[in-house]
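Batch job 17 of 40 flagged for manual review because the log was empty.
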Amino acid sequence: MIQFPPGTYRHATDRWGSFKRQCATLPEGALAVVDRTVARLHPQVIKSLEARKPRAIIQLTGGESAKSFKALEQVLVAGLSMPRSGTLIAIGGGTIGDVSTVAAHLLKRGVRLVQVPTTLLAAVDSSLGGKGAVDITVRGRVVKNPVGVFHYAEEAWLCPEFFASLSDTQLREGSLEAWKMVASLDEELFLSYSRRAPALERMVKDARRLKESVCAQDPYELQGLRRVLNFGHTFGHVLESVSRFQLSHGDAVGLGMLCALDVGRAMGITPDEVAWQVEDALHQGPGVLGRERTADLLARAKLKDVSALLSADKKAGSAGELRMILITDVGKAVVRDVSEDVWRALWPAWTQGVRP
């Protein structure tokens, strides 16, 4: 059997079932990183891990604070004695998965990684694709994900009991990310979802399949093919930052998709009827927040700060040009350079909470 070096692209093995049953396969001596809230809501997590005699169990508070160099160092110190054949298991949402992915890549130049997404958002998106990152503060503003790695998980455990404890808000956030992929990659699924909302497990499997198909073609973002997965992220990250991360990532991506539809229309790339169709479906399906939320957030922001955040975005071109994913039709997207005058012209409508 071929052995893949840690971090090499490979299709992650998805395993559905209870955490206790899955944990019975975890190698002894693993390093576990667990979201504190998950540990509190699901006491069997710590008990099941302790039964496998882990090297250490590190509990972190989920959220952007987990994606700091301080949290990363805590995980790295706990894993210093791990062999290169060791396993790091990440149990939590996207931020726990992010810092754990970076740690797994750095420890011994790469150890085995198991992702256990406990939020719908992490299940449909961040727990696969190999990307992990931490944040940096620039001029008092947190810039998301400028320092990171590619390190693919060998397994993902999808445990329904974690999803059963999610709030309506958390379910909406994950659904928005799933609909993002469907709207930009698969017309047939989009139309199917628009007619009847899918069951949660079906949506997770669809989203993971779509993302996996893109990542397999461009595992390390060398060809630009993975950029399509960033639909809604450009202005979504801006809205997250100006809210000081009071706005969740999933909701930010939802509002960012509305901004991207506006930019596409302004540039003549997204037909009006397609933009209305996608926006209406996002309201009727996952329940994207209203445009008034964008207006509330941008009322606190200065144009120069938004420009600084966009110029620091990791998706910008080599000359600093803004590169966005824009929809040409349902299920089809392109990458386009967007000049500052385009989005600045949309600013008045965005700050008023209306369609341009």
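Reviewer: the log was empty due to a logging misconfiguration, but the result itself is present. Confidence is low (pLDDT under 50) at residues 1-8. Unflagging and moving on to job 18.
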